[in-house]
TrEMBL record:
InterPro entries: ABC/ECF_trnsptr_transmembrane (IPR003339), ECF_transporter_component (IPR051611), EcfT (IPR024919). It is a multi-pass membrane protein. Belongs to the energy-coupling factor EcfT family. Its main location: membrane. GO terms for cellular component: plasma membrane. This is Energy-coupling factor transporter transmembrane protein EcfT. The chain crosses the membrane at residues 30-58, 70-88, 108-128, 199-220, 241-261. It is found in: Cell membrane. The lineage of its organism: Bacteria, Bacillati, Bacillota, Clostridia, Peptostreptococcales. It holds the Pfam family CbiQ. Keywords: Cell membrane, Membrane, Transmembrane, Transmembrane helix, Transport. Transmembrane (T) component of an energy-coupling factor (ECF) ABC-transporter complex. Unlike classic ABC transporters this ECF transporter provides the energy necessary to transport a number of different substrates.
């Protein structure tokens, strides 16, 4: 379960999606997330899913690898599904005891589950097809206009990228701690959900210690290399918008127009 989380991981490749400018990918991802919230019916979701499927095919990231990232949040999706199914009132389809399932509640439950799945897959594609250093450069470039208002663009971009980059590292540490405790007789798999949750509590202390140790090592390494955001820096690989980036923007603009038109006309 721990290794199934794909958020923050980079999948090496040389596809057209991998070669896009990171600024373009960040903006397209943000607009895609907005478009998911604009959708109000299943036809719009079908268009969004179709566009996402095309991007996955072009990126050449295995679909099994992407879908694996949905396993850790299955509980969240199931919880959202159940809450919407039972809490929304309407035309009753099934009723038992004090619970009832309405047609509107079932529709909203499926609606929200699809929305969550599309959001997670769409967000994961950004980190799967973008190197961490490129992601940092892209975020800094997009935030740089706000420097005149005192926003530390470089520091903010670096913090967000480090947070994403260390998600897989902390997951590996968690996996190591769990295996070490299982070798000493700990049981994380038997019992109900509450018992499993209680069994995970002893993992938190060594995990926090390990996280602070990694953070301290990183800070010392950056300090030893005289790293700072105030000094002027040069880049080995400068970012430049080229024809494929413009083509990607035009294609996504057409996709976004389809979503908006579908929302208005239907």
């Amino acid at each position: 379960m721990i290794r199934d989380i794909t958020l923050g991981q980079f999948y090496p490749g040389n596809s057209w999606i991998h070669r896009l400018d990171p600024r373009v990918k960040i903006m397209v991802t943000l607009l895609y997330i907005v478009s998911i919230f604009v959708v109000k019916d299943f036809i719009g979701f079908a268009l969004a899913a179709l566009g996402l499927a095309v991007v996955i095919a072009i990126s050449r990231v295995p679909l099994k690898f992407i879908l694996r990232g949905l396993k850790p949040i299955f509980i969240l999706i199931a919880f959202t599904f159940i809450i919407n199914m039972f809490m929304i009132k309407g035309e009753v389809l099934v009723s038992f005891w004090i619970f009832s399932i309405s047609r509107e509640g079932l529709r909203m439950a499926v609606f929200m589950a699809i929305r969550l799945i599309l959001l997670i897959i769409g967000s994961s594609l950004l980190t799967l097809t973008t190197k961490p250093i490129s992601l940092t450069d892209g975020m800094e470039a997009l935030l740089s206009p706000f420097k005149r208002f005192g926003l530390p663009a470089h520091d903010l971009a670096m913090m967000m990228t480090i947070a994403l980059r260390f998600i897989p590292t902390l997951l590996e540490e968690t996996d190591k701690i769990m295996k070490a405790q299982m070798a000493r007789g700990a049981d994380f798999e038997s019992g109900n959900i509450l018992r499993r949750a209680k069994a995970l509590i002893p993992i938190l202390v060594p995990l926090f210690i390990s996280a602070f140790r990694i953070a301290q090592d990183l800070a010392m390494a950056m300090e030893a290399r005289c790293y700072g955001s105030n000094s002027k820096k040069t880049r080995m690989n400068g970012m430049k918008i080229c024809s494929r980036d413009i083509a990607a923007c035009l294609i996504f603009a057409a996709f976004l127009a389809m979503i908006i038109l579908e929302r208005i006309l239907l």
